[in-house]
Amino acid sequence: MKVYGSTSSPYVRKVRVAAAELGMGDKVPLEVMGTAPHDPNSDLAKKNPGIKVPALELDNGEFIFDSRIIMRYLNDMAGGSLYPAGDWAMQCRESYAEGMIDASLLVRFETALRPEEFRWQGWIDGQSKKVDNVMDQMEQDVASMTGVDAAAIAFGCALGYMDFRFADWGWRDSRPALAAWFAGFSARPSMQSTPQV
Amino acid sequence: MMKLYGGASSPYVRKCRVAARELGITDRIEEAAMPTYGVDPNTPLAGMNPAVRVPTLEMDNGEFLYDSRIILRYLNEVGGGNLYPASDWAMQRRESQAEGMIDASLLLRGEVTRPAEFQYQSFKDIQSRKIDNALAALETQVGDLGAVDAAAISVACGLGYLDFRFDDRGWRNNHPALAAWFEAFNARPSMQSTMPG
Fold it and tell me: Yes or no: is domain B89-192 CATH 1.20.1050.10?
């Protein structure tokens, strides 16, 4: 098996962190797709239109995506506990963390990849507010998060992306519990071995 | 009584509404409109779902559930359905491909409804290509689309959204197998009673 993706994507990192936490890191090496993973001219995309990155290629040549499905698959294979049965609240935390990642990616695209004359500040403000809204909820929810599950991994990758692309955001300022939680989570080998570059 | 928040024009809300009808549990769900907010996340929705997105489901115990995939899994459990056959990773991947098409469609819709001076052609082209890539991939998998599962519902809602917002793309022209499949699925009462508008 291998995972296709970039080293800068928070979604790719989710999968890599999950694999490491499940003790499968060496079974799921990363095949770096370069800086434009959605390049339609890449061989991978040509053979698999509609492929999303991260994508897990199985030994039989089939592809699995997106990141949530890959994580469930790896969890299933490893007999892990990333998705405790019936824990809807945990799944919602994973979901809202992904909502934060989506919003931060949109801000990133708007500010770094869109020519200045086409940037809409109202849009940037709206998406930024969503990012802050989610982090405020995370500040409340980390009190009850003690282990490693899919939500914790999503939180870690979402916050890591903030440090990576939005170092000036100052997300820790009014969120001491979240900052403390992240300090602990990001020290884990699974996070240390998957820095975003 | 559960409450499903979201409007009739959202393809993700429609996924949930179609699922509820297919599962035969509409009598347990009140469908409540939620005003669209554009880029302003300061709506009642922000207190229900930190990522400020529809659909959001209010469960009988007053807690909130999101996103559409999680809501579908929950409704499937409540309704004793078979929308998510165990270990059917390929089906889940197809659901993800359909969602990729929906995501690109929503981003394209968002872009073309921006103030004209903030519209960026390259962004439109990227999303348009993603839609076409997803359609190409789904065209080859029509034979795998189960009668009614999460993937089938997602594909149908995605195609319905293209008809609703991007009728001039003429997606049927190059995707005859998908068009034939959709003609049959779209005739289902669950689809006919949830037409976007």
Answer: yes
